[in-house]
């Protein structure tokens, strides 16, 4: 049995409510774009690829139920409207914005065909959203395998096992399945070359402690949870071979937005001479932005920091700043950026992807 964040069949979409994990595994039906927006905003579903997939599939479900139209032009306008709502849910990850543009373009192209019909536009958008789900799973399996082999060549060329530290949740729960950074860990484990995985708690919302730890236990991967503040001592004392994290947006110069805390991990890794990798599908890359300074960083409500499961842990009256992400400068990404198309240095990324990635990503 595999962990699934998203359960989809034509006309039906369900998401695993990740706010309830690890105590409860409960799926919730998503029947409309509005419901998807609310679930994404509340972080019932989270992780850059999963956000985009749930957004697009919620539109597919609405279209399957007959929403939009009448006529191809009105349907294209409806699709565009709904997609613009979805893009507003969480601004930092590029995946939803890119998926929205690709779906809107597909709808418009279909509507421009001679003799275009509303039914054909509807079918095109639904199929395109469904293809994204399959593509993400394939990309992740490739990232896992490419990343594992690359890492083993660098960190254990003579054989032997590696120890990896990861942050936030980048696994099956954040994607269509398999995961990105956690996919690399999964592949290393399958090859019997993983000594140990360390996952950080990932304050403030604890995606590491709640979700990554859950996935690692579920997959029976040898792993240990640490608080974020233990990363430096773990690197000093636990023989960490590499740090691997995911990405919400990798821009043209390789600067990478990811869950807050990633930046400090990269600094600590550099200090200890531990290679630092980003694992992300090309759908998380945005060549339209030149540097990380241009990335909009989402700020989340203060209660995510001051409370745990609704219980206040911070002193009443204290001010709170809660940026959900930070940007790791490309020069700290010393291992490379692992994509489904290959492993690149930040400097190589633009040339490697520019033939296929639009330059107006976000
Ligand atoms: O706020 P979240 O939980 O959506 O943040 C998730 C992350 O930052 C992940 O590391 C990133 O989206 C990559 S998921 C494959």
Task: Give the tags.
EC 5.3.1.23; seven-stranded mixed sheet; binds 5-S-methyl-1-O-phosphono-5-thio-D-ribulose; 362 residues; isomerase; Initiation_fac_2B_a/b/d; Rossmann fold; 41% helix; nucleus; alpha/beta; 11 helices; Four Helix Bundle (Hemerythrin (Met), subunit A); amino-acid biosynthesis; four-stranded mixed sheet
Structural commentary:
The protein has 362 residues and is an alpha/beta fold. It folds into 2 domains: 131 residues, Four Helix Bundle (Hemerythrin (Met), subunit A) (Up-down Bundle); 197 residues, Translation initiation factor eif-2b, domain 2 (Rossmann fold). Helices cover 41% and strands 17% of the residues. The protein has 11 helices and 16 strands. It has a 7-stranded mixed sheet with strand order 6-5-4-7-10-15-16. Strand 12 and strand 13 form a beta hairpin. Helix 1 packs parallel to helix 3 and helix 2 runs antiparallel to helix 5. The longest helix is centred in the middle third of the chain and has 38 residues. 5-S-methyl-1-O-phosphono-5-thio-D-ribulose binds next to helix 2 and strand 9.
């Amino acid at each position: 049995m595999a962990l699934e964040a998203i359960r989809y069949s034509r006309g039906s979409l369900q998401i695993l409510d990740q706010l309830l994990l690890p105590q409860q595994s409960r799926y919730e039906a998503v029947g409309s774009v509005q419901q998807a927006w609310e679930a994404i905003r509340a972080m019932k579903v989270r992780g850059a690829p999963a956000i985009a997939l749930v957004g697009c599939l919620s539109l597919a479900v609405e279209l399957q139920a007959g929403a939009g139209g009448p006529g191809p032009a009105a349907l294209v306008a409806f699709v565009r409207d709904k997609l613009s709502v979805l893009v507003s849910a969480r601004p930092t990850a590029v995946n939803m914005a890119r998926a929205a543009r690709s779906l809107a373009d597909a709808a418009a192209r279909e509507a421009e065909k001679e003799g275009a019909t509303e039914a054909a536009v509807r079918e095109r958008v639904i199929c395109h959203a469904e293809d994204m789900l399959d593509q993400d799973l394939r990309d992740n399996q490739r990232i896992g395998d490419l990343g594992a082999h690359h890492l083993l060549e660098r960190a254990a060329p003579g054989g032997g096992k590696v120890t990896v530290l990861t942050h936030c949740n980048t696994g099956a729960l954040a994607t269509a399945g398999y995961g990105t950074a956690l996919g690399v860990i999964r592949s290393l484990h399958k090859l019997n070359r993983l000594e140990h995985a360390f996952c950080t708690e990932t304050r403030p919302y604890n995606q590491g402690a709640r979700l990554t730890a859950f996935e690692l236990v579920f997959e029976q991967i040898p792993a240990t949870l640490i608080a974020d503040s233990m990363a430096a001592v773990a690197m000093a004392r636990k023989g960490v071979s590499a740090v691997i994290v995911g990405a919400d947006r990798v821009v043209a110069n390789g600067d990478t937005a990811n869950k807050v805390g990633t930046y400090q991990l990269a600094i600590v890794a550099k200090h200890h001479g531990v290679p630092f990798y980003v694992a992300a599908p090309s759908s998380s890359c945005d060549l339209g932005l030149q540097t990380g300074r241009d990335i909009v960083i989402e700020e989340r409500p203060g209660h995510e920091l001051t409370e745990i499961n609704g219980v206040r842990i911070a002193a009443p009256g204290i001010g709170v700043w809660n940026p959900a992400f930070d940007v790791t400068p490309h020069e700290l990404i010393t291992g490379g950026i692992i994509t489904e198309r290959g492993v690149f240095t930040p400097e190589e990324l633009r040339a490697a992807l520019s033939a296929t990635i639009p330059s107006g990503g976000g």
